[in-house]
């Protein structure tokens, strides 16, 4: 590869990373707000536990709609191109997030407040559902031979960086605002800041060219009339196994962040600012695991890396109760760091593995749909289920939930064939 070509591929990989980081920032600030303030602002009736459960249900709405976004944007991504579709998904996500920042609470408009909130969460889910598949293809379909795992890592770095931005913004608010000011208006600022970040993402993406792989599809007129129909007709097995392989990633992340943030600041009485700082430390371990796991996936195979990381995740569920229940900030931080390290290790290979399961003319629809169907099982109700499990049986049951999610993904990965040597067709 010439230096110019290498530089071009690197710019494309960075563009996939920047856009994904912005979209996940948008998604994560809602998770933070759901754990801290959405309940009292939009569901003021009832006790704090009821408010938390209601808040976590609105959190689930976007995960239920993400597969719809993947199918919708995947259709156009496989019909007209990756670039245009990625621009549209970023716009949908950005507008929905910004409008949440100006949405009146229950005290101002009554029952319309939670209804409109769910509608905007629906929009967030549609936008993010179309984002990941396109970003992964933007990176991998431009990657040099033998390095799809490494370049597929760049969109996988978007979530930890987006999470750091989201957590950092709430940390700043905790530093400079009182709890009442944060509840009254401060929580809206990260949502409003999304509009600026989206402009940056649009500027980067509008400068991109179509991927060479899909350019060949267009040139040879290989587009499929209805990609989703072809997907479910001929590729049901890789779709199902790819979705199940994603379950552990989602469960690890959202139990370690959204649920733990809620539990840590209420049951453990750890101050909000301190717990957010603990999460900032922990997510660095996720960021560190991502390139290591991606490199290992190119070197030793995606399947082997996922089997090892998934086995470790299964065992980690047994540590949840003793480490969280300790109440020690040091021990809790160590647990969060372990879980997010394992999340990075299981998540990084997916940037290459899921696209490698599908042919070029169905790849946007297939990879994106598998990724987001996994979110329904692993993430949509994870904080809600965890909250219910704590009430019914305690933290040990939450640890069992994490181990069960890991077992599901391990089984799916075991049934998959190795994909790193698949020819790009």
Describe the structure in brief:
With 425 residues, this protein is mainly alpha-helical. The protein contains 21 helices and no strands. 82% of the residues lie in helices and 0% in strands.
Query: Can you give the helix content as a percent range?
Result: over 70%
Question: What do we call the CATH homologous superfamily?
Answer: MFS general substrate transporter like domains
Main sheet?
none
What's the tally of helices? 21
How much beta, percentage-wise? under 5%
**Estimated structural class:** mainly alpha
Extract low-pLDDT stretches: 1-7
Radius of gyration: 20 Å
Q: Quick one: how many beta strands? A: 0
* Net shape: globular
Topology-level CATH name: Growth Hormone, Chain: A
Nearest-integer average pLDDT: 89
CATH architecture group name: Up-down Bundle
Distance between the termini: 20 Å
**What is the count of distinct domains?**
1
What top-tier CATH class fits best?
Mainly Alpha
What is the ordering of alpha helices and beta strands?
HHHHHHHHHHHHHHHHHHHHH
Question: Which keywords apply here?
Answer:
425 residues, mainly alpha, Growth Hormone, Chain: A, 21 helices, globular, disordered N terminus
Can you walk me through this structure?
By secondary structure, this protein is an all-alpha fold. The chain has a single domain, classed as Up-down Bundle (Growth Hormone, Chain: A). The protein is 82% helix and 0% strand. The chain has helices spanning 3-36, 38-42, 48-79, 82-102, 106-109, 112-140, 148-151, 153-176, 179-184, 189-206, 212-219, 227-234, 236-266, 272-300, 302-316, 320-325, 329-347, 350-356, 363-380, 382-392, 395-415. The longest helix has 34 residues, at 3-36. It starts with a helix and ends in a 10-residue tail after the last helix.
